[in-house]
Amino acid sequence: MEKNLIILLSCCLLHFASAQLRVGFYSSTCPRAETIIRQLVQKRFGTDRSITAALLRMHFHDCFVRGCDASILIDSTKSTSSEKDAGPNLTVRGYELIDEIKKALEAACPSTVSCADIITVATRDAVDLAGGSHYKVPTGRRDGLVSDSAEVNLPGPSLSVPEALPFFRAKGLTLNDMVTLLGAHTVGVAHCGFFQDRLSNFQGTGKPDQTMNPALAARLLRTCGTASRPLNRDPTVFLDQNTSFTFDNQFYNQLRSKKGILQIDQQLALDRSSAPIVSSFASNPNAFQQNFASAMIKMANIQVLGGKAGEIRKNCRVFNPKSRRGF
């Protein structure tokens, strides 16, 4: 009985925090907040179009651990290992852009805009710049006070659809949301180590994964080889082989042609529960864009902190001194 009451109370608190988010949250306290974020993302996008994929990955990895609270941004110390240094997050990048945005916002309106909102808005803007939908983002998140590498447990690239789905359902997301959010791979890359087994010795068979287009497998094998490498020397390939920097639905068309690079991506087109969604998005680009905007807004509401919870960090990489925790 007591356990059920705690669960119910937690759900109510989470709903209350999400309800506190609203479009234009900073309209009176920092009117230029979203303009400043947009300008700096646009500046970076002008020289590095891969920033869209970087921010999408950062946003996803942040929200799926302790909720969208910017805990992924915290640097480790001599005594603590933060989320940033957990294995799945070693390929996350773009932190310096968040630092640049935070510095500009602190100059304009000190201790006002959270790092969590910066990630959310910057990701939206990067998707828009790459050709995706421009959707309105409710803001008002606050930054978390905990970042622990031991808490990082994310769905891996070799899972089946039934294995991956519980990770999403645990965060209040549906099968449709999962298929939609994995569509972010339309602008992503993957290190060879994440799919190398599919190219020549899939699950110990001595043969390539039969669910991968043979010509693609042969081409990737030439790029990746069979030897494993340290992450910093492991080659990367585009997950969307055609429109690699454009946020569109071509990723789903490639899945239907057995050209998914990651096993979980290809399984989306093969599993009977998710295949109809893949087909729908492959044939209807507007459906994908609309669903993606909705799924991103939904994901950005996961376990958010509002009101007096958490803090507004002065520096996204470190927690505020305890004397400043009220901000």
Automatic annotation (TrEMBL):
Transition state stabilizer, annotated site positions: R57
UniProt keyword Metal-binding present = yes
List its EC numbers: 1.11.1.7
- Record's Gene Ontology CC terms? extracellular region
Q: Name one GO biological process term.
A: response to oxidative stress
Residues involved in Ca(2+) 1 binding:
D62, V65, G67, D69, S71, E83
Task: Report the record's disulfide bonds.
Answer: C30-C109, C63-C68, C115-C316, C192-C224
Signal peptide residue numbers:
1-19
Q: Which reaction does it catalyse?
A: 2 a phenolic donor + H2O2 = 2 a phenolic radical donor + 2 H2O
Task: Give binding positions for substrate.
Answer: P155
Q: Which residues bind heme b?
A: H185
Q: Which UniProt keywords apply?
A: Calcium, Disulfide bond, Glycoprotein, Heme, Hydrogen peroxide, Iron, Metal-binding, Oxidoreductase, Peroxidase, Secreted, Signal
Q: Where does Ca(2+) 2 bind?
A: T186, D240, T243, D248
What note does UniProt attach to the cofactor annotation? Binds 1 heme b (iron(II)-protoporphyrin IX) group per subunit. Binds 2 calcium ions per subunit.
Tell me where it resides: Secreted
User: What is its cofactor?
Assistant: heme b; Ca(2+)
Write out the GO MF terms: heme binding; lactoperoxidase activity; metal ion binding
Give the main EC class: oxidoreductase
The active site is formed by H61
Pfam families linked to this entry: peroxidase
Q: InterPro entries, from UniProt?
A: Haem_peroxidase (IPR002016), Haem_peroxidase_sf (IPR010255), Peroxidase_pln (IPR000823), Peroxidases_AS (IPR019794), Peroxidases_heam-ligand_BS (IPR019793), Secretory_peroxidase (IPR033905)
Q: Which PANTHER family match?
A: PEROXIDASE (PTHR31517:SF59), PTHR31517
Tell me, in a sentence or two, what this protein's role is.
Removal of H(2)O(2), oxidation of toxic reductants, biosynthesis and degradation of lignin, suberization, auxin catabolism, response to environmental stresses such as wounding, pathogen attack and oxidative stress. These functions might be dependent on each isozyme/isoform in each plant tissue.
> Which family does the UniProt entry place this protein in?
Belongs to the peroxidase family. Classical plant (class III) peroxidase subfamily. Belongs to the peroxidase family. Ascorbate peroxidase subfamily.
Name the chain's protein: Peroxidase
